[in-house]
Amino acid sequence: MMTFKRSKAARRAGHALSALALAVASGSLLAAETATDVVEHVDVVGQAVSLDKALKEQRRSDNVKSVVSADGVAQLPDENVAEAVQRLPGVSVERDQGEGRFVSVRGLGPDMNAVNINGTLIPSPNADTRAVALDVLPSELVQSLSVVKTLTPDMDANSLGGTIEVESLSAFDHKGLFYTGSAEGSYDDNSGQTSPKFSGAISDRFSLGDGIDNFGVAAALSWQKRDFGSDNVETGGAWDFEDGARLEELEQRDYDITRERTGLGLNFDYRPDDFNSYYLRTLYSRFKDSETRNAAGVEFDDAQAPGERGDAEGWRELKSREETQEIQSYVLGSEHLRGDWTLNAQVGYSRSSEDTPGHIAGALFEGTDDFTDAGFGSTRKPTLNIGEAFYDANNFILDEVEWAEQDTTDTEKNIKLDLARDYELSGHAARVKFGGKLSRRDKDNDTNVWTYEDFDDAGIAADDLLLGNFTKGRVDYGLGRFGPGISDKAIKRLLGGLDRADYYNEEESRIGDYEMSEDIDAAYLMNTVDIGDLRVIAGLRYEGTDFRAKGTGLRDGTFENIEASNDYDHWLPGLHLRYQLDKDTQLRAAWTNSVVRPSFEQLAPGFLIDGDEAEFGNPQLDPLESSNFDLGIERYLGRAGVVSAFVFYKDIENFVYNTDLAGTGAWTDFDEANTYANGDRAKLYGLELAWSQKFDWLPAPWNGLLLGANATFSRSDARIEGQGRRRDIDLPFQSDTVGNLMLGWENDKLSLRLSANYKSDYLQEVAAVDDKAHDLYVDDQTFVDFSARYFLTKDLQVSFEAQNITDEHYYVYTGRDRYNAQYEEYGPTYKLGLTFTHF
């Protein structure tokens, strides 16, 4: 066990090699954990190097965490940060259009996990959630990723599943000049589109004053424009289960998408001597998402079973919007050594935003008459069967256009101070650490909506509103026959001739607006002591929260200004144990307490009351609290080898769920009163297993073989109430089984890797407490990826990657897996790239 007195250099992180790649080896990221101990110089790049580095960090860490560290060439075929961390044990991602987006840890949904960049919290650019969509962050800008699963008292206590920590590159990760550049082209099989990508990084150290190489500058840049698409058919869960299983409506959707990512990181380090250091970390990421969605759907006059035919109302709809998400992060900090004392100070500022300028939120064309002979086939992937009239554009007329714009900002400012002193406790090496943090967060949302309807009042003839005047080219839809698509340019031309002020929708514009502030004051005290082969960390953290919200409600046609507040305090004890059984085996145990505030959608102060129906947020929700227990063992098997097992248990109070309060309390006379409420208790427990091995003792060529696997098995129990009833559910987003399997092989020239990621089905959305049949579940998924890399020279490498080579789809079902709520296909993606690296 190491003692606490260490040199300054020994406390600094060494993540080595390029910002260009997230190393991984899906299997052994498995339970890997970050530590900040030794600067390493890596002379060889490859899968085994990356694995071995991650395991060394795990071995030294005081927390239970899993890591993805950057390496010169050992990249996974991942588009963004979310897809990279899904390779870790206990981690799964929620996908949007086939790309990883939000991260779940140990079965707890994205809102229950936090994201830090360079030690400061990253707020969410989305209006409704706290979860950070990690597809905003290009993987090339990241030096290392870790998922911290057991929080020490000196860490923010704002995660129940885990805290995702992102570190960007530093010039002190390399001994001298380092630079790399990459160019890549990708092909999307579903849309037939090709897309470019360019990235690069450079770092160097310079001498200032009397120092030698004491000032470092590092920069990384990434740009990608990806054109792709998806095909979708969905029912939204519109099944009538009272008379068998009969479908009420279905809709076909075709998506054309362009996503452009730009990322820039610029970091400075100054180390004038062995006792003082200063740093500035900056990161800027811009994610521009352009989406055009054509939809064609029917609502049957009478709910139908597969193969039946009848009359139906039909519609076609266009949605076309462009939104830009930005994340900015600036962290200024220093470290000072004064004898046995260490002082760390840091100021952080982060700002996330989402800007969606004026766009077509929905242009709806309805059938001029009912369509006859309408039906569908298959309950899992419904195929619309309908007469030729449905595919004639002149049988649809424009009913309504919704034009909208939205702007959301979320800023977080913090200042923190940490003091630590090394000392001896009864002859044992010990360290006491204490400090505090002030955090100020402000989030606001501004929405404006214009609803264009009653076009005859504007002097527009009915014949001028027929879909035939608004059609575009063929819709490339792969799940059946689609018919005419709608031109967004033609819709915009129509709206351009109307007075926008006449169509302003004040209700939709004001109810969703809000301003929220969340001030958190925190302080902690912790002590670490080494007693032989046992390390003990015990401490206590305090967090006091002051929450304020402003919004607008609408009560039977009258607007009301709403202000709400909620203050609360938490005392959060923690205990961590790490025991060295022998030089290669160690036990870990932890008891921690954490707290997560409800999402902004749940806390929103706005409401809508219309007669006997109501819908509203709940600013008085209590935060979620959890007592967490972890116990595990790790056995290290030489270079890039480990086998580990961890059990965990979480006792959660005040989990939040959607409910209907109609018939109770102030809502006794209401038919609907939809809001959010705190549940009593929920439990989550599970087992994480991980193994990886480099077979370098075998004869050639088998000595280049690498194998890795991890699996997490978990269960959850929760109870919801409403309308005088209650029932038991699983926690939303919790998959019972999550796993990775990796097979790799490499030598000095060639690196091959085949990896698979599996996630079992999970509850996505809870229906009414008395309507379990309409709960929505996401089906299990298995994604298989392949990568190959070859060194043309010692500095130049060519790569080939294939993502989703088994063409896995996304499927949401209603109650049971035979009843569709949503089915979506993406197809595989292929990449070819060239990378030059000098270090």
UniProtKB/TrEMBL annotation:
<keyword id="KW-0675">Receptor</keyword>
<keyword id="KW-0998">Cell outer membrane</keyword>
<dbReference type="Pfam" id="PF00593">
    <property type="entry name" value="TonB_dep_Rec_b-barrel"/>
</dbReference>
<feature type="signal peptide">
    <location>
        <begin position="1"/>
        <end position="31"/>
    </location>
</feature>
<dbReference type="InterPro" id="IPR037066">
    <property type="entry name" value="Plug_dom_sf"/>
</dbReference>
<comment type="similarity">
    <text>Belongs to the TonB-dependent receptor family.</text>
</comment>
<feature type="domain" description="TonB-dependent receptor-like beta-barrel">
    <location>
        <begin position="366"/>
        <end position="805"/>
    </location>
</feature>
<dbReference type="InterPro" id="IPR000531">
    <property type="entry name" value="Beta-barrel_TonB"/>
</dbReference>
<protein>
    <submittedName>
        <fullName>TonB-dependent receptor</fullName>
    </submittedName>
</protein>
<dbReference type="InterPro" id="IPR039426">
    <property type="entry name" value="TonB-dep_rcpt-like"/>
</dbReference>
<keyword id="KW-0812">Transmembrane</keyword>
<keyword id="KW-0798">TonB box</keyword>
<dbReference type="InterPro" id="IPR010104">
    <property type="entry name" value="TonB_rcpt_bac"/>
</dbReference>
<keyword id="KW-0813">Transport</keyword>
<keyword id="KW-0732">Signal</keyword>
<dbReference type="Pfam" id="PF07715">
    <property type="entry name" value="Plug"/>
</dbReference>
<dbReference type="InterPro" id="IPR036942">
    <property type="entry name" value="Beta-barrel_TonB_sf"/>
</dbReference>
<keyword id="KW-0472">Membrane</keyword>
<dbReference type="GO" id="GO:0009279">
    <property type="term" value="C:cell outer membrane"/>
</dbReference>
<dbReference type="InterPro" id="IPR012910">
    <property type="entry name" value="Plug_dom"/>
</dbReference>
<feature type="domain" description="TonB-dependent receptor plug">
    <location>
        <begin position="59"/>
        <end position="163"/>
    </location>
</feature>
<keyword id="KW-1134">Transmembrane beta strand</keyword>
